Fold this sequence. Notes:
The protein is an all-alpha fold. It has helices at 5-20, 25-34, 44-61, 68-71, 77-85, 99-109. The protein is built from six helices and no strands.
Amino acid sequence: CDISHGKGNAILLPYAVKFNYDAVPERYDKIAGAMGLNVERSGRGEKKEALIDAIKGLLMKAGIRETLGQICLREDVPGLAGKTMRDVCLATNPRPVRLEDAIAIFEEAL
C-alpha cells in the first residue's frame, strides 16, 4: 500500500473520530464548535455524526476524495494495523487501541 503518512491520516480521520468520540465527547464537541457546527442541542450520536460528516466535507474541499480501498488492498490491513500499534502516538490516544480495533478501523475505511 503506497500512501503518504499525511494522506493516510486524513483518510482515516473520520474513522478515528468515530472510534474515539465516546471516550472524550467534550473534546470533539469543542472541535465541532470550532468548525461552526451548531450541535449544542443535539444528542451525542447526532453530534458525533455531524462532526464526522463535516470532516468528510472538509476532506472533499481539500481534494482528498480517495477511500483507503482505492489505495490499499484488504491484504494490506494487517501490516498497516501492526505499524499503527508500534506508533508512539497511541500513548496519547483518548481510548486504548488493541490490534483488533486498529484492524477494524482500517477495514471500515476500505
